[in-house]
Amino acid sequence: MGDDQLLDLWELLGSIEEDQAYQVLTHLFVRFEDRCKNDPADAPAALFFEQLALVIAQVQSCNVNRR
């Protein structure tokens, strides 16, 4: 994936509504979950969930620190 494609994805992500962002995340989760079910050794799918867990932890930590 080239830089132009990444910029296009950033633009798309920035232009969607909050409920659509939730749908995007849900669909990504289901797709990678299915990949893990079909192939437990799927390294990219495992990495997706590792990164997702890290991002969730970081966001929760930032939210707790703001209170």
Please characterize this protein's 3D structure.
By secondary structure, the protein is an all-alpha fold. The protein has 3 helices and no strands. It has helices spanning 3-15, 18-38, 43-66. It is globular.
Report Rg. 14 Å
Find the count of extended strands (DSSP E, 2+ residues).
Answer: 0
Describe the global form.
globular
What is the distance, rounded to the nearest whole angstrom, between the alpha carbons of the first and last residues?
A: 39 Å
Keywords:
single chain; 67 residues; mainly alpha; 3 helices
Give the secondary structure arrangement, pairings included.
Blueprint: H1 3-15, H2 18-38, H3 43-66
Summarize the structure.
With 67 residues, this protein is mainly α. It has three helices and no strands. The protein has one domain (18-66).
